[in-house]
């Protein structure tokens, strides 16, 4: 391709761009996703650089800028041109050092109107290639896309080649020709169920994250999933909502689930941003049976996920026509994200196993509560929150309560939610 191609954006791209309008120009770096991918032993720096540039050549989203001046964003796909991928010598041979490099690079916003939506580095130690570190803007890739890129990078480093790939412009054109009016209609009809306090919190306080890793917690979640024929992610959502309800003294709360929107095989390998928010309102009734409560959470979350692909501008207009003025359909205070596989198993001596690992955040806008979960040999439970919403060590308390709730609810001895203990006596806070 030797010329620029232009076209409409996908539903997922539009959702990211509208959400960034809420964050404002001073907080654009929240959209930068950091990845650290290990380089196989013996692979040279030049080979890693070349493999990354092959991925850039293959996937149009990595060569796309956006015209945001009009009422509707337009994506502009540029021809592939060689780009610089610097090598950075680290002071130590560690994943943590590479991650720090990525986090530092992610702190600077990426100008998606004029620049490529990524930054990349090859980390070295004593001259040997260790990792490919990338910072990619969320409009160009979501977590599903990052997994695709990691897999394809491994293929290229092993000497393989890439076949034909599907592109975001193809999806955008298909969505324009066959708009998903069913999902817009669903959200228009159910929008009134969202708890008003769980919309944009306007909270500019500092955020931080408390995380733990639990083998027993995952075993319990999987046992409940198998017993009830429901998903692990809905089990964790239900227990998380119960724990937050206890902590905040509220009976009902709305969460923005992150819909991956990769249910159709054609779009599974797409490198682009397909994620969108799918709100769910959970009611915690102390008299409800725990198993019936978890089943209800599953039905609600699956309904939300099935309607997770939609045009946020069309929804805004539909709500206006229905007499429900809506400034930003992407603004929610509480996020829930089931991330899939963990990036790596925690080291044996990590605080994640028996205590809590804390991580600061530069974010000062958007959601002031974020429950993020990933699985490996255990379950990684991360609770991010502002100091105003969960002060002191409450994010750690909540993460530990979720772990305890999974384990205790799995025992199946309680007849009501009120009887479920969330006391965690084995986790060092």
Describe, in plain words, how this protein is organized in 3D:
The chain is of the alpha+beta class. It has helices spanning 11-23, 45-58, 95-106, 143-157, 168-177, 181-190, 215-228, 232-248, 290-306, 312-321, 351-354, 394-410, and strands spanning 5-8, 32-38, 64-67, 74-77, 87-89, 118-125, 128-137, 207-214, 252-259, 276-283, 334-341, 357-360, 369-375, 379-386. It has 12 helices and 14 strands. The strands form 3 sheets. It has a 7-stranded mixed β-sheet. The chain has a 4-stranded mixed β-sheet with strand order 2-7-6-5, with helices on both faces. Strands 1-4-3 form a 3-stranded antiparallel β-sheet.
Secondary structure elements and pairings:
Blueprint: E1 5-8, H1 11-23, E2 32-38, H2 45-58, E3 64-67, E4 74-77, E5 87-89, H3 95-106, E6 118-125, E7 128-137, H4 143-157, H5 168-177, H6 181-190, E8 207-214, H7 215-228, H8 232-248, E9 252-259, E10 276-283, H9 290-306, H10 312-321, E11 334-341, H11 351-354, E12 357-360, E13 369-375, E14 379-386, H12 394-410
Parallel strand pairs: 5-6, 9-11, 11-13
Antiparallel strand pairs: 1-4, 2-7, 3-4, 6-7, 8-12, 8-14, 9-10, 13-14
Helix pairs in contact: 2-4, 6-10, 7-12, 8-9, 8-12
Pfam family, one: Condensation
Protein name: Condensation domain-containing protein
Domain Condensation: 35-322
